[in-house]
Specification:
With 434 residues, this protein is an alpha/beta fold. It contains 17 helices and 14 strands. It has three domains: 157 residues, 3-Layer(aba) Sandwich (Rossmann fold), CATH 3.40.50.720; 123 residues, no CATH class; 84 residues, Type Iii Antifreeze Protein Isoform Hplc 12 (Alpha-Beta Complex), CATH 3.90.1210.10.
């Protein structure tokens, strides 16, 4: 509630919060667009594989040539992290192994790290957060992205004394989306391949949003940061409108939830494709209950919409603004020393699951590809059978057949055990036996 006031004190003292950004893609560009109107916040440096592309991104969001000239552009993220003027590092590459490397480098340099890269967080976030805490720096989920916003709602409810029944987000879901590939994805979005190409849209990235992988990744991040847990068989994607969340998003009601304290994603369309009334496609929610009869009466007195019992209600936010809101994480880390959500345990995992019958000798093509999608499951189950995390399923050859709908395991692939991301993931599993 006081971030802006604290920021103005830093600005008045001539000590602006100075940021280093890794990755000037869509999320990074949205953040960059807010910098000129946030006095006291400066971008000291931007690391991108193409510095010229990063400069073009800055121009595209309205930066002046003077501001661009005052910013250092490099193609080496590790070099940028070490710049003494950088106080907070933003990891926005979306590449899980790179995210782990960059986060660890920032921690070693004594820099706060805001992890836009949810893929890296789900792959090894609990250990990264522990490493950051030991070093006295903040490791934070990215405000504006749905996981941090969901964690905020959960924290609000618990801080008020309300038991949380469920929390999550909305999306558009139909079961057939799990089989979507980069070649078929645009039909589901109502676009032609040419329209997508003109719009600069990456088919594999958009396919990850569609096929269930991104939803699984985001809910695993919420579970690991909030203490809520997935259902045994992962996300159900029930079609639910905002007017019926309190009635449907609780256990024992038509099987919608498996247990109280569950992460879930609700669909904006029914299974036949018809729209859900009052959908929450772009938003986030928390479902909670009155802890006593007096609180229940207060719900009635103040017009709170509840389930039929009068005890359960929901609070939701209808949209999220992605990188336009990222300043909240940056300022919280730099000015308060607090994350906007951080992993506290290993509760949810996202396991590579066959989109079709896969044959030995095939090369997995990662998140959003044609081979596997990422299914959310309890981390204890993933560890028990050795599930291959979706963050390490790129350019990995199969050595055994895997049937449609079955999880891919470590034993099904030939993986480079000397790879740093693989070793760090295994270290995380050992450190957090779910």
């Amino acid at each position: 509630m006081n971030l802006y006031r604290l920021l103005q004190k830093r600005a008045s003292a001539g000590r602006p919060v100075r940021v280093g950004l890794i990755g000037a893609g869509k999320f990074g560009s949205m953040f960059l667009s807010q910098v000129p109107t946030t006095p006291g916040l400066e971008v000291a440096a931007i690391a991108d594989l193409s510095p010229d592309r990063a400069r073009a991104a800055c121009r595209n969001v309205g930066w002046t040539e003077e501001r661009i000239a005052a910013t250092r552009f490099v193609d080496d993220a590790a070099k940028m992290i070490a710049f003494p003027e950088v106080e907070v590092v933003i990891e926005a590459t979306g590449h899980a192994p790179a995210g782990i490397f960059h986060a660890r480098a920032a921690i070693r340099e004594g820099k706060h790290i805001v992890m836009v890269n949810v893929e890296a967080d789900v792959l090894a976030g609990p250990l990264l957060a522990r490493e950051a805490e030991a070093a006295g720096v903040v490791y934070s989920l990215a405000y504006g992205d749905q996981p941090a916003l969901i964690c905020e709602l959960v924290d609000w409810a618990r801080s008020c004394g309300f038991p949380v029944i469920s929390a999550g987000k909305g999306t558009k879901y139909r079961p057939e989306y799990h089989a979507s590939t980069p070649e078929t994805v645009w039909g589901y979005y109502g676009l032609t391949a040419e329209q997508a190409r003109i719009g600069g849209m990456n088919p594999q990235m958009f396919n990850s949003f569609l096929d269930g992988t991104k939803s699984g990744i985001e809910m695993a991040a919420v579970a690991n940061a909030s203490g809520l847990t997935p259902a045994p068989d992962g996300l159900v994607f029930p079609p639910v409108g905002t007017h019926e969340m309190a009635e449907m998003l609780r256990p024992g009601n038509a099987g919608t939830l498996h247990h109280s304290g569950q992460v879930e994603v609700i669909s904006s369309v029914h299974r036949d494709g018809s729209p859900v009334r009052n959908d929450l496609r772009w938003g986030v929610f928390v479902v909670f209950e009155a802890p006593n009869d007096y609180a229940q009466r207060c719900f009635q007195e103040y017009g709170v919409a509840t389930d039929s019992s009068g005890r359960v209600t929901a609070l939701y936010r209808p949209f999220h603004l992605i990188g336009l809101e990222l300043n909240v994480s940056i300022l919280s880390a730099a000015l308060r020393g607090e994350p906007t959500g951080t992993p506290t345990g290993f509760r949810g995992d996202v396991v590579s699951t066959a989109k079709r019958d896969l044959k030995a000798g095939e090369m997995l093509d990662g998140e959003g590809g044609a081979c596997v999608w990422g299914k959310l499951m309890p981390a204890a189950d993933s560890l028990r059978f050795g599930g291959l995390p979706i963050g390490l399923a790129n350019r990995v050859p199969l050595i055994r057949d895997v049937a449609l709908g079955q999880p891919v395991t470590w034993a099904d692939v030939r993986i480079d055990t000397e790879d740093a991301a693989y070793q760090y993931r295994r270290a995380m599993e050992a450190a957090f036996p779910a």
